[in-house]
Design goal:
Shape: elongated
Strand content: 25-35%
Distance between the termini: 67 Å
Radius of gyration: 26 Å
Largest sheet: 6 strands, mixed
Number of helices: 11
Structural class: alpha/beta
Oligomer: single chain
């Protein structure tokens, strides 16, 4: 049976003694179900980490309610909460002498005896989880000496051995190299879809959110929390709206931000036959070097045309073959030498 997390009219922020509350987000309404991976996206200062800490019970809400499977967070005691929710925050461990195994086994403390002893089943679960995540070989190493990606996997392992339906993660792919980010996002996807965990993670990685999330929660200090499928929010223009800033716009076709270049001089237009990996990467290189790329399947009568066939890039000028080269660097060198002639029709 699916469990759910529901936030109702939630206001988050800080209470500063006798001073007025510092409100980060207000009137938030959204839900998360087991079997879902949700990414929380928003510009710096939007209150993403504060929301996560509030949902985890580490920080009190200023207003509203948080319901875990119909039970208000306000009445959940610490032991019950620890069996419902596991959390991975960005806080660093200060103990220099904890091994990776020591960190992971902390996840079983809610189930340990009064004296903190763990049974054979607990130890077996810890070892099996570390094996599944591919980190068992590191269990005797000091946690402090692990790489960022290895530490993150250990913290996820700790959350998994806690064996809760809800998993909250704050920036799990921050400071990790690109292959490591993909490994972790693939792992979280499997946990949500196959092991039916309800996973909510904050991230600054727009690509990860758009690629992996079942739903996005978009946050902005001056806008309401907005939830929906990534593709819908892109097509509705909401992703660009929530991250809007001067000089940038969100390319809805390619799912990335670009600098506005109105009035910016270009080297000209290049027609490209986009039919393979080589020409797709050529188009990226051309745009990076201030060319305007137009897709076409036919060689135009006027202008510069590029394609990739039989192991080489072929360049045409006014429908006549200019030459063949074998690298994108050579294509760029040849086109730059053409000056502004690359404008179609000249």
């Amino acid at each position: 049976m699916r469990k759910n997390l529901i936030i109702k009219n939630l206001t988050t922020g800080y209470r500063l003694g006798n001073k007025a509350d510092v409100v980060l987000q207000q009137g938030m309404n959204a839900s998360l179900k087991t079997g879902q991976l949700i990414c929380v996206l928003g510009p710096n200062g939007a209150g993403k980490s504060t929301l996560l800490r509030t949902l985890a019970g580490f920080q009190k809400a200023l207003k509203g309610d948080i319901l875990f499977d119909g039970i208000s967070l306000k009445i959940l005691d610490l032991k019950k909460l620890s069996r419902l929710v596991s959390v991975v925050l960005t806080d660093r461990f200060s103990d220099l002498y904890l091994t990776a195994f020591d960190v992971v086994r902390m996840g079983r403390f809610p189930y340990a005896s009064f004296f903190g002893r763990m049974g054979a089943k607990d130890l077996s679960l810890i070892n099996q989880t570390m094996e599944k995540l591919g980190v068992a070989v590191l269990k005797k190493k000091l946690f402090y000496n692990l790489s960022d990606g290895e530490r993150q996997k250990m913290l996820i392992a700790r959350a998994l051995v806690q064996d809760t339906p809800f998993l909250l993660l704050d920036e799990p792919v921050a400071f990790i190299d690109s292959p490591g980010r993909i490994e972790i996002m693939e792992l979280l996807t499997i946990l949500a879809h196959e092991q039916k965990k309800a996973i909510l993670m904050t991230t600054h990685d727009m690509d990860a959110g758009l690629r992996y999330a079942d739903n996005l929660w978009l946050m902005h200090r001056q806008k309401p929390l907005l939830a929906g499928a990534p593709e819908d929010l892109v097509l509705q223009g909401k992703v660009g709206e929530y991250f809007q800033r001067p000089g940038l716009h969100f390319d809805r076709e390619k799912g990335l931000f670009r600098a506005d270049r109105k009035g910016h001089a270009t080297r000209g237009t290049v027609f490209v036959k986009l039919e393979n990996h080589e020409t797709n990467w050529l188009a990226k290189a051309l745009e990076r070097n201030d060319f305007v790329v137009e897709e076409t399947d036919e060689i135009p009568e006027k202008g510069i045309f590029a394609c990739y066939e039989s192991g080489s890039f072929q360049l045409y000028r006014d429908a006549k073959l200019m030459g063949e080269v074998h690298s994108i660097a050579d294509v760029l060198e040849k086109l730059v030498a053409q000056g502004n002639y690359t404008q179609a029709g000249k």
